Amino acid sequence: MVGEVWRIGDIKITRIVEIEATGGMTRIIPDATRERVMGIRWLMPHFADGEGRMRGAIHALLVETPDLAIVVDTCVGNDKQRAVPAWNMLQTAFLDDLAAAGCAREDVDRVFCTHLHIDHVGWNTMWVDGKWVPTFPNARYLMGAKEFEYWRDNARDGQADVMADSVLPIHAAGLADLIEQDAEICPGVTLIPSPGHTPGHASVFLESAGESALITGDFLHHPVQMAHPEWSSAPDVDRPQAIATRKSMYNRFADGPTLIIGTHFATPTAGFLKRDGDAWRLDV
Ligand SMILES: [Zn+2]
User: In angstroms, what is the C-alpha Rg of the chain?
Assistant: First the structure.
């Protein structure tokens, strides 16, 4: 499904939705029980339902600058054997949706993965004639050097499968560029290091004609972590670092003009970060 479109100066951002669902996020943020979520009323109706079930999404963001078409994060992907039943052997119209948004897969110039987890690298590759081939044949795939080296050396079980079917084939095809955690992808598109969820995690800062936006990646998974930055995400590799990153990013962007686009936020997906007592909230 093609979701929201935002414009930041001369940059257009289009949300390509792979999955949007209610109820699955408690597995990711175990502290966010339904009872506790019920007490955070500003999450409703967009980010939680009336019974405290959190809503979440998996989507890619097509970032079109005057010069480049960049896909930020590539979801779970089709045809991949995964342990999570809802993600196993997925079949969605993702590439058709991307084309409907005006960008055929051959038109993509850059792919950037905020980190190398299962739901951020899937469409890096597609299954063709019995093997995994790069989905975006004319793109350079940008990955954090630190992030790649960490998972190259530490991936086990499901993460090893993810590397094997969605990351290493890109390197084998000669399409990968390893970049610094604070690299500039192109004018107006710059990375901000946001480690903790994974060691090399980076968020994407967009700036054009006096306007700005932040693509979070997974330094938080759900707006509930604005109210409670200390609530860890189960897959956070370094929890104290992830908490420190959330607080420092919130302090940096709260009450400012930057549109916050959440990588796993349900529709409407974006809003403005506000201070809320000792914590924060998202205004949409
Ligand atoms: Zn994720």
Answer: 18
User: What is the 60 CA–ligand 1 centroid distance (Å)?
Assistant: 11
Which residues span the domain enclosing 170? 2-283
Q: How far apart are CA 190 and CA 16, in angstroms?
A: 21
Q: How far is the CA of 15 from the centre of ligand 1 (A)?
A: 15
Q: How far does residue 220's CA lie from ligand 1's centre (Å)?
A: 9
Tens digit of each residue's pLDDT (9 = 90 or more) over 182-192: 999 999 999 99
Provide the token pair at 27.
Answer: 């597995």
| Overall number of domains in the chain | 1
Nearest Cα to Cα of residue 219 among 163, 265, 188: 265
The alpha carbon of 237 and the centre of ligand 1 are apart by a number of angstroms equal to 13
Average pLDDT, the chain: 97
CA of 117 to the centre of ligand 1 (A): 7
Q: How far is the CA of 22 from the centre of ligand 1 (A)?
A: 15
112-125 pLDDT, tens digit per residue, is 999 999 999 999 99
CATH of the domain at 237: 3.60.15.10
pLDDT band, very low/low/confident/very high, at 24 (cuts 50, 70, 90): confident
